[in-house]
Amino acid sequence: MINYVDRMADALVDVLKYSNQDVEWVKPDDMKPNEGVEAEWFYPAIESAEYSEITAILQYTQQEAVFEDEIGELMLGIALVEMKHYAHVRDAIVALGGTLPKPYNSKNVNIGGTVVEALTLAAHSEVATIQFYKSVKAHITASTDTADIARKLLTKLIADESLHLKMLTQQLKKEVGDDKKYDEIMKKMVEDNK
Question: Is the predicted pLDDT of residue 116 greater than 80, yes or no?
Answer without folding.
Answer: yes
